[in-house]
Write a structure and sequence with these properties.
By secondary structure, this protein is of the alpha/beta class. The protein has 2 domains: 195 residues, Rossmann fold, CATH 3.40.50; 190 residues, Rossmann fold (3-Layer(aba) Sandwich), CATH 3.40.50.2000. It is built from 18 helices and 14 strands. The longest helix is centred in the N-terminal third of the chain and has 20 residues.
């Protein structure tokens, strides 16, 4: 068995070596397309742009914005646990993959937390990364396991771990590889009992169902001037927020929009369209206008605020009223504001547009902001949480776009009264304690 695992690793390394020119070309291509940050490409090759601080260092990998957001309550709990144990708070390095996460990191993470891009999963890049940072403990958020990272840093903790039924079936096709990959982790803190069972079947030791650190987070911050600007655009109009939408999903809503407007007449609804990747905003603006709707980018309307618009010149004055029916968000970091300005949230990533199964996005964010959620059939990434919210009336799961259209009309016409939220206690404090136990004094 050990020989087979070594053979798998050697085969992976040989393939990576042969594909090294392809790796480099792909990085340059992604940089040219705006998917990588040109000034920080060296970090993707394992070359650090910051000095390592002295003392114990905890490395936490959070691939994208969702995982990065989930770290905030954990880092707060780690600071509190260190103070309670009368120990200095360890230095923390957070890595991510996406540019969006890197741009938001300075505003999201506590002061003093370092951020770098994670190296590509090539043995040389990972070796350079490890030699510079020398982490005393590594944590991986959700399901971000890569062979070289796992091999170079044994004893990892997998936090907020989740394995969908589809991913589980895929991993079971290579049982030797999966058992080696998950077996390198010290412990896995899963989001649900089903996730923990799947992880144990894949070879993960000590897989415990503790929930998600996202449950411990406060409501998202709201920029009041932006909220008031939107409410001033649409006084007395119901507002629907399509949050974290993906390609193909917006077309489903635009096709249903005339029916929604007819059913809600004479109160014309307004739409806030917040794509998961705001670099798509200009494309979406054209798509919405092609559907015959008045639309504008948020950066053309926004007051000075904390969001990060795309590099596009703003006109000196906002467009004249009447206000556009649709506002397309082209900035980052204001989801709490969009939620506060809306009456209802339509959750992206859950509609299987084009046959893609994305597993949905976190429904707790809008619910914590007091807004109910309508989602599609695919909420695999948040199955247990979605079921709890559905039972108490805060979430409606719809099988298709037609059912979602009816749900939106019902909510915006005469909103039902949801029950009180169930108590949700996340694992941040327990994970923080586990981190301190494993660090040198």
């Amino acid at each position: 068995m050990a020989c087979r695992r070594q053979l798998l690793l050697l085969s992976y390394r040989l393939l990576a070596l042969l594909l090294t020119p392809v790796w480099l070309l792909l990085l340059l291509l992604r940089s040219w397309r705006g998917r990588e940050e040109p000034g920080r490409l060296a970090e993707r090759l394992g070359l650090a742009s910051r000095l390592r601080p002295p003392g114990p260092l905890v490395w936490i990998h959070a691939a994208s914005v969702g995982e990065l957001t989930s770290l905030v309550p954990l880092l707060t709990a780690l600071e509190a646990a260190s103070a309670a144990a009368r120990r200095p708070t360890p230095a923390v390095l957070v890595t991510s993959v996406t540019r969006t996460a890197a741009r938001l990191a300075p505003g999201l993470l506590p002061a003093g937390v370092l951020h770098q891009y994670v190296p590509i999963d090539h043995w040389l890049a990972v070796a350079l990364f490890r030699r510079h940072w020398r982490p005393d403990l590594g944590l991986l958020a959700e399901a971000e396991l890569w062979p070289e990272l796992v091999h170079a840093m044994p004893g990892l903790l997998l936090i907020n771990a989740r394995v969908s039924a589809r991913s589980h079936r895929r991993h079971r096709r290579l049982p030797c590889y999966s058992r080696w990959l998950y077996g390198r982790c010290q412990a896995c803190f899963a989001q649900s009992a089903a996730d923990a069972a799947r992880l144990r079947s894949l070879g993960a030791p000590a897989a415990l169902a503790l929930g998600s650190t996202k449950w411990d987070g406060p409501p998202l911050p709201v920029h009041r001037p932006s909220q008031e600007r939107l409410q001033g655009l649409w006084p007395q109009r119901p507002v629907l927020l399509f949050a974290s939408s993906h390609p193909g999903e917006e077309a489903l809503l635009l096709a249903a929009w005339p029916q929604i407007c007819r059913q809600l007449a004479p109160r014309r609804p307004a739409l806030l369209l917040a794509p998961r990747h705001p670099e798509r905003a200009l494309q979406l603006l054209g798509q919405v206008r092609a559907a015959g709707l008045e639309a504008q980018l948020w950066s053309r309307l926004a007051p000075p605020g904390p969001d990060l618009p795309l590099p596009d010149p703003r006109p000196p004055d906002p467009p004249p009223d009447p206000a556009p029916t649709v506002v397309v968000v082209d900035g980052l970091g204001q989801m709490g504001t969009w939620i506060a300005a809306a009456d209802l949230v339509l959750m992206g990533g859950s509609w299987r547009a084009g046959g893609r199964e994305l597993g949905g996005h976190n429904p707790l964010e809008p619910v914590r902001g007091g807004r109910p959620v309508v989602c599609g059939p695919d909420m695999a990434n948040f199955a247990e949480l979605s079921a709890q919210l559905e039972r108490c009336g805060w979430l409606w799961r719809c099988g298709d776009a037609a059912a979602a259209c009816e749900a939106v009309i019902t909510w915006l016409r005469q909103p039902p009264q949801p029950a009180a939220l169930p108590p949700l206690q996340g694992p941040s404090a327990r994970i923080a304690a586990a981190v301190l136990e494993r660090l040198p004094l």
